[in-house]
Amino acid sequence: MSDPAPPRPDLARPPARDQARDLARSMGRCIRDFGLVEEGDRIMVCLSGGKDSYTLLELLERARRRAPVRFELIAVHLDQGHPGYDGRPLERWLHEQGYEHRILREDTYEVVTANVPEGKTYCSLCSRLRRGVLARAAAELGCTKIALGHHADDAIETLMLNLMFTGSLGAMPPKLVSEDGSIVIRPLLYCQERDIAAYAAAAQFPILPCDLCGSQENLWRKQVKQLLVDLEARVPQLRQSMLAALGNVRGSHLLDPHLLAAAGVPIPEGAAPSAPLRAPITGEDVVGSTPSAPSPATSARRLPLVSS
Asked: Tell me, what's the pLDDT at 152?
């Protein structure tokens, strides 16, 4: 683990200023809508070395400087022992930018490759191992929440994967309480991947390639991503419409007896929804956790709309 970094200096003018402003506004709306940040929070930002988590860390830092609530950030990166891994550019960037951070080292790669048959994807086991390491780190560092860099496209792709393979309607919740009691938040769920990519390119973040799962060409998530690209060529508003659908559920128009009962539709006593074909996909870092509803208004002040 590295030593705590000195107080963060003032940020220079962000690259792609319009992109930064739009992303910050979208993130601010997500934070406001679901009460993701509260007074006194200490948020562990999981920094993978990819464009999404770098962007999340930068935008949360800008929000922290402008917010009427006080909260802290600590960036945490996990070295999983992948072949060819070199995390020095990321660690150097964190030092240069002045972020408080920790670098964890846990050889999960050997465990994954020893237990996953050849030709099968590593995601499930890899994510469970990573999740356990990060949850322990969050507790040790006194963090109240864990922030992940999943964005709107991740949520849409997860919805499609659930429809195709699990027989369930579900995606990635913006706020989730894990079985161990830790709270996971996804402030970028209103942000589109293309905007994040443009911002990250302009910022010249030192991106670290994933040589484990990223090299597996048979991942269905990759194929679903391409399917959405193909459909979007015919339906330009496809992604916006699908994201809106996740927040516009009509329970009375579905086949789940619980939702029908909540909508006032009489159902036979003892009726129950059909079991999914397998456990729903809720995100590679939080499979098996239980989503939480947006928190009711409390005395805690929450972060309002944030602009860059």
From this structure: 97
